[in-house]
């Protein structure tokens, strides 16, 4: 078997058959759609219960499983896929914290079309964070699927009891087991999370994480089928796919794949950065946190989902933000309507489109811009849990105040949490004052880390420059797609400048800017949201199908593919005709 010198510790091997499969942990589509799978003992869930819940939570966080969404009827499926899982902690040279790698090998692995799908979690999710894309497409086809959490994940460390998460997902005290993440500091307060507090700037290594996962996948196929070994990139096609941060990770991997491991790449809504082309996530996220609340007060957004409160009125905090920007001299107008329009025009001048702003009302109402800024600033500045930028901190949330988490809350984090607090009994504290706009002081501080020139701002820019993606090889089939309505990673800042750069450099990527699609398929189940949009996952599956035909059936890789011209879902259930898939 080929070497996996980057693995730290043992490789766990588990079998998943008889009502405990690879794709849904035995829940099936109906179970995935239902209430969260329970724990018999909330404070001490079993390994099997944690895995089942982690898979279910990952599906719910990525796919539209709502009654009108069409998953399982119009597109996609969740068949029973028995097989084995191989899991370990892997290390990038020089890193402080490991990344988790996992390979799912179906019993019906297609020996005639040897296929390994490699993927990275979306957002900052745990190891199953791309199962609804990579697993759902690859496993039923007979491909093995290799996952990495890319140095993020929900292996939270709690200083209150000095515990983190072991390889099997259960809580363990520091020193009693290898942990997914343990801070360098031996003492502290609150909650430490790997993405924000590892000291590694993991985003700069996402491509390396993906390539290590691919090599781990080949090695585990050797273990699974020793009579067929060796599995190599020459006899096994490795298809890389991911969405959001996972999409950015596979594009990073494509740019540093000097061993030609990857046979093709399909990236959905990627967080990708090319210096001098588009904008970095931290730039537009910190800008959005400051300016979007006021801009969305403008009447042109009155009907956008989340842009008004439950009674149809303007959000009071957003109205206050207009006044705050005026008080700071950033807005000249003295009336609310004029201030909102001025904020809107400011964002238009920096590249925001009306489509992106309208959809971004959801991210603004959910406070995602500030949440993203806090975690990413801490990662870029390599800060610990006790030294986060701008006075922020993560602590257990007890009756709205900082406290100590109970055992049941801690036990659920690995399965349920998204990888960046707040949520799941953890609060985001600090970065506020007692003024009328209490969050403004922290948001201004986060923004100055981008616009300023002090030591922290310079250090942050150094870390962001390290995220630069590199050119993939010329003959690599590469397909990028993004929703035209994406309000979290707007196309004007991400996929469009990346694709334009590739073409300037003589590459021939395929690109779909999908009308009516946006960033969060899972949001389509929310009232008033899904009727305006389309899911992006079916387009990802279609691109992967086309890549399969090219790799295994000799179908020519097209110079271009017409962009589907679907129509918004409407108030009823999704119909296949609405997708207008080619």
Please give a structural write-up:
- The chain is of the alpha/beta class and 582 residues long.
- The protein has a domain at 281-382 and 430-464.
- 33% of the residues lie in helices and 14% in strands.
- It has 17 helices and 16 strands.
- The chain has helices spanning 28-33, 47-62, 131-138, 194-197, 206-224, 245-255, 281-295, 316-327, 336-349, 354-365, 368-380, 407-416, 440-451, 455-465, 495-504, 537-553, 576-579; strands at 7-16, 83-90, 99-106, 115-120, 144-148, 157-158, 163-165, 171-173, 191-192, 237-243, 264-268, 393-398, 401-403, 426-429, 478-483, 510-514.
- The strands form four sheets. It has a nine-stranded mixed β-sheet with strand order 1-2-3-5-4-10-11-15-16, with helices on both faces. A three-stranded antiparallel β-sheet has the order 13-12-14, with no helix packed on it.
- A hairpin with an 8-residue loop joins β2 and β3.
- The radius of gyration is 23 Å and the shape is globular.
- The mean pLDDT is 97.
């Amino acid at each position: 078997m080929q070497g996996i010198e980057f693995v730290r510790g043992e490789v766990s091997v588990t079998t998943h058959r008889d009502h405990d499969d690879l794709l849904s942990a035995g829940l099936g589509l109906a179970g995935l759609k239902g209430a969260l799978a329970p724990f018999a003992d909330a404070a001490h869930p079993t390994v099997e219960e944690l895995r089942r819940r982690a898979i279910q939570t990952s599906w719910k966080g990525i796919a539209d499983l709502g009654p009108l969404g069409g998953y399982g009827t119009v597109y996609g499926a969740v068949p029973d896929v028995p097989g084995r899982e191989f899991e370990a902690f892997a290390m990038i040279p020089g890193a402080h914290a490991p990344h988790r790698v996992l390979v799912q090998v179906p019993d019906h692995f297609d020996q005639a079309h040897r296929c390994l799908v490699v993927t990275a979690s979306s957002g900052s999710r745990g190891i199953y964070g791309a199962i609804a894309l990579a697993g759902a497409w690859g496993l039923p086809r007979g491909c093995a699927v290799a996952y990495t959490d890319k140095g993020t994940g929900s292996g939270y460390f709690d200083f209150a009891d000095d515990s983190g998460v072991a390889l099997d997902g259960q809580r363990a005290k520091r020193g009693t087991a290898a942990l997914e993440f343990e801070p360098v500091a031996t003492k502290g307060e609150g909650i430490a999370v790997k993405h924000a507090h590892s000291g590694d700037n993991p985003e700069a290594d996402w491509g390396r994480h993906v390539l290590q996962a691919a090599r781990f996948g080949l090695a585990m196929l050797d273990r699974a089928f020793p009579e067929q070994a060796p599995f190599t990139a020459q006899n096994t096609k490795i298809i890389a796919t991911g969405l959001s941060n996972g999409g950015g990770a596979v594009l990073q991997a494509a740019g540093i794949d000097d061993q030609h491991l990857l046979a093709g790449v399909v990236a959905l809504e990627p967080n990708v950065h090319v210096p001098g082309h588009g904008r970095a996530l931290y730039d537009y996220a910190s800008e959005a946190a400051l300016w979007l609340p006021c801009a969305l007060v403008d009447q042109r957004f009155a009907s956008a989902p989340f842009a008004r409160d439950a009674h149809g009125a303007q959000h009071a905090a957003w109205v206050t933000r207009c006044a705050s920007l005026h008080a700071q001299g950033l807005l000249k107008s003295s009336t609310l309507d004029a201030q909102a329009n001025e904020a809107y025009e400011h964002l238009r001048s920096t590249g925001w489109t009306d489509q992106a702003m309208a959809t971004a009302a959801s991210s603004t109402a959910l406070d995602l811009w500030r949440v993203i800024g806090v975690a990413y600033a801490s990662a870029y500045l390599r800060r610990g849990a006790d030294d986060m930028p701008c006075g922020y901190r993560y602590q257990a949330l007890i009756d709205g105040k900082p406290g100590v988490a109970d055992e049941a809350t801690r036990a659920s984090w690995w399965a349920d949490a998204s990888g960046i607090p707040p949520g799941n009994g953890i609060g985001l504290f600090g970065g506020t004052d007692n003024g009328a706009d209490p969050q403004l002081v922290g948001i201004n501080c986060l923004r100055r880390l981008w616009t300023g020139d002090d030591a922290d701002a310079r250090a942050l820019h150094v870390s962001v420059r390290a995220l630069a993606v590199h050119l993939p090889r010329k003959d690599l089939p590469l397909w990028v797609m993004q929703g035209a309505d994406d309000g979290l990673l707007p196309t004007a800042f991400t996929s469009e400048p990346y694709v334009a750069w590739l073409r300037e450099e003589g590459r021939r990527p395929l690109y779909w800017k999908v009308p009516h699609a946006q960033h969060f398929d899972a949001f389509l189940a929310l009232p008033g949201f899904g009727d305006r949009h389309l899911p992006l996952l079916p387009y990802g599956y279609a691109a992967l199908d086309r890549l399969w035909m090219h790799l295994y059936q000799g179908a020519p890789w097209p110079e271009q593919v017409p962009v589907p011209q679907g129509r918004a879902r409407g108030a009823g259930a999704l119909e296949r005709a609405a997708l207008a898939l080619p």
